Amino acid sequence: MSALLHYKVEGSGTPLLLIHGLFGNLDNLGGLSRDLKEDYQVIRVDLRNHGLSFHSDQHNYELMAGDVAQLLQSLELSDVIVVGHSMGGKVAMKLAAEHPKLVRSLIVMDMAPVRYDQHRHDNVFAGLFAVQERRPSDREEAMDILAQHIEMLSVRQFLGKSLYKENNTIRQRFNVNALFANYQSILDWHPVQPVRKPVLFLKGADSDYITQDAQAAIQQQFPQAKAHIIANTGHWLHAEKPQDVLRVIRRFLASV
After folding, report:
1. Is 23 in the same domain as 105?
2. Which of 19, 95, 133, 229 gets the most CB atoms within 10 Å of its CB?
3. Alpha helices of 11-121 — where are they, by DSSP H?
4. Is 235 a catalytic residue?
5. pTM score, two decimals?
């Protein structure tokens, strides 16, 4: 039995769980939470090896779904709406498959129930390991180290949200070593038995995380799936087009 995940609860009403992606934390979906907590009881979690949750050498979807199930059971919640982005989307799908009584409906943001082969995070890991190794004494120095490996400013700013200072050294809240060691498990996916619950797949129009090839896998594993494409946005659709994403989420939730 693992320790409980770190979490925040806001609002009241039907429970709605928000699950962040790789290298994130519960604040990443704060924009969605600020809106949705007006009508729902919103629970945000830090997944294992992220944020303020426990660190572990093991990191795979079965374990992460189990962590989330354990938290929901401890809060005496069931029939929960689950919203997950990227890696969090796979956790949400696994949770619905393994613990169906806990899940009412699913919203999966820019992720498919398939194995990914492309290593998209090599430069991110290089930057994070460099920060770990060089032990910068202030945030500016840490961000400069990241810039030597990661070209995109938005990615560096995103990673910067998990930096903090301890004993005059900048540290990272996520467990870089474990995430690197388990990266293949993060890319991986073992198809689940059909989940017959309402599911909305939200795709960023400019993102290649959900491809034409993935549609058969989606229909096979989630036969009640609907899809919506958010125009002019990439993988971080909820950050780039929050109002569009919220409008589609609310429309879906009103229909199920």
Report:
1. yes
2. 19
3. 30-36, 61-74, 87-98
4. yes
5. 0.96
